[in-house]
Specification:
The structure is a homodimer of 362-residue chains. The first copy, chain A, has 362 residues and is of the alpha/beta class. Chain A is built from 9 helices and 14 strands.
Chain lengths: 362, 362
């Protein structure tokens, strides 16, 4: 039976990425050695990293004056590196869910944090839009997509202070005006590659604002100066990202991907809104195109486990919702084919029929 | 032509590791999905990480009371995490080469560092053995194998203070008395797997000695408490390490590997000592079994580039020495087959004959 991979992350990757990564592991054409066992200083490796950075820049239209880094340690390490490098006295954070919360917690190690807006009042089912950003802050931090709660910024905020953003779960899924940000970061394991590498897009002249001494590995300047080669980077993970980027270029770039994502998400949201058993959890205008969260309508609440089993028996993987929201979450990242979304829609329709006609076949 | 991979790191991995990692990327038997695209919270992934930790413990005979962690960020991040977590007032470091130097540099961000011994006086060609360790230090830090200078500790030091060790380039190559250390760490990319994952062996009750607040990702306690699953670990990199560990078990464990390593290194050192063109750079008693450094004898010095080309034309990869030592470096990590060492020995002999008979054929 075909599996439909709706995991929230690590998550589905394109066949192109999977096959070409396996191929590079078995042996690079130009080195006769595995991508896993060549020196990061070798020509084959440095050229590969340069190609990845170059394609990354091209696909996201990253302006001059920004560097692209590939680091280890995950976005969670960025939660502390951002304030380590940028928080002098006070930073503003928008609290749109769990990941924002973690970022806020780490920032507090380094200075004052003002949470200028939060959607906690309604279990993070919306993106806060009304807030004042004090002028004396070092930066405003946002989380552009909230995997757990299924909400997403559809537009980059307009503020008059430097911005920092965690785009772990929606980078490459939609157009982003990079010039609005001083720093954008994220783990690779949603729209880019396997877990183990973290991308950072950083405005070169945005550094140097803090006085504190910063250990070398935690100092963005180290990595900008050495072009991600200060220490051994996660080579095979970057190689896998390169395959995804090549695939994105073939798809027609971010604009084409965004359209496809809207179509996929639209299909599933339409079914959620139509189906008598289910309802979405996020406010419609803030619904994420990456993580689609829904629950059983009150009267069918006791069927949750049964539906999970029903869907699982039909190849749906990873659709159990996070415990903070409950219900279901279907993650429809860039690599998710529309056929899988249609398969899930069909399962929901089949289940609805069974329940309403009272003749359900597991 | 067969390539013989003598890279210093990232470096040769076993065919077993390479083939099984590629296989897992194409699709896990028990998940029908790629190891790169399954949730780190999935049963398949958590079981895989548990198996890796368990086998890691077994092969190194790690005593109770120690945790094994798999983190991102490389050993270079450990250079700052060790003092972040352990350096209260003063730490002692032994300076046995470049990597020690980098560790010392990062420790100085956190407190006083006393370099109790250094082999800098003779370009790090030996392991310092005579030193006094002050009683009031928080820990003594050593680098057990020095990739650049080709020296290695053959015995764990006997000191009365807690020890911290960077074993990036010789873990699993020789017997180590883990109980002598509070913390041992290293990048995977020599004897374990592809770059992108860092192992940490840590004595659970060794923490809590410093007062400073430690950001979550830099706090060992976070990772001990969550068993390396606080954030998304580098899954595919850990999976590759597991393959290497399974291969080690088949080889008969560390004891068998150590014997094989001594044999391989012995072969090459014997040739270096015999061959009229070459000489070793490290003091004999401190010669590394992992990185074998040698240069041209004075009278043949101008042949260095020619020999590199000669060897390269015969399939030798990565034998150019680091600029700090010059000459050549053949890294003979665990996965290096003795046939490759023999091939290099033959190339050295062939080249010697050609030079001495003055009829060299490139």
């Amino acid at each position: 039976m075909k599996k439909h991979n709706f995991y929230a992350g690590p998550s589905i990757l394109s066949d192109y990425t999977i096959k070409n990564t396996a191929k590079g592991i078995l042996g690079l054409d130009n080195a006769e050695l595995s991508i896993m066992e060549i020196s990061h200083r070798s020509k084959e490796c440095t050229e590969m990293v340069e190609e990845t950075i170059s394609l990354f820049r091209e696909l996201l239209s990253i302006p001059k004056g920004y560097s692209v880094l590939f680091l280890g340690g995950g976005a969670s390490t960025q939660f502390c590196m951002v304030p380590y490098n940028y928080l002098n006295k006070k930073a503003a954070y928008i609290d749109s869910g769990s990941w924002s919360g973690k970022a806020i917690k780490e920032a507090r190690f380094f200075g004052e944090v003002e949470v200028v807006a939060s959607s906690e009042d309604r279990n993070y089912c919306y993106i806060p839009k009304k807030y004042d950003v004090p002028k004396d802050i070092d930066y405003l931090h946002i989380t552009t997509n909230n995997t757990i709660f299924g909400t997403q910024y559809k537009k980059d905020p307009d503020v008059k202070v430097p911005m920092a953003a965690d785009m772990s779960s929606d980078i490459f899924s939609r157009y982003v005006d990079i010039s609005k940000y001083d720093i954008i970061y994220g783990g690779a394991q949603k729209n880019l590659g396997p877990a183990g590498v973290t991308f950072v897009i950083i405005k070169d002249d945005s550094l140097g604002r803090v006085e504190r001494p910063i250990p070398s590995m935690l100092n963005y300047k180290t990595h900008i100066d050495k072009e991600s080669m200060y220490n051994t980077p996660p080579v095979v993970n970057i190689f896998a990202c390169l395959q995804t980027l090549k695939w994105y270029r073939r798809l027609g770039g971010v604009q084409a991907i965004q359209k496809y994502n809207e179509k996929k998400a639209g299909l599933l949201y339409d079914e959620i809104d139509r189906n008598r058993l289910f309802k979405g959890t996020a406010d419609k205008k803030d619904r994420s195109d990456m993580n689609i969260t829904f629950v059983m309508n009150e009267e069918f609440k006791e069927l949750q486990t049964e539906f999970l089993e029903f869907a699982s028996n039909r190849g749906m993987v990873g659709i159990k919702g996070h415990r903070s929201v409950g219900g279901f979450r279907a993650s429809t990242y860039n690599a998710m084919p529309i056929d899988s979304v249609m398969a899930l829609v069909e399962v929901m329709q089949e289940y609805e029929k069974g329940v309403l006609n009272n003749n359900l076949k597991k």
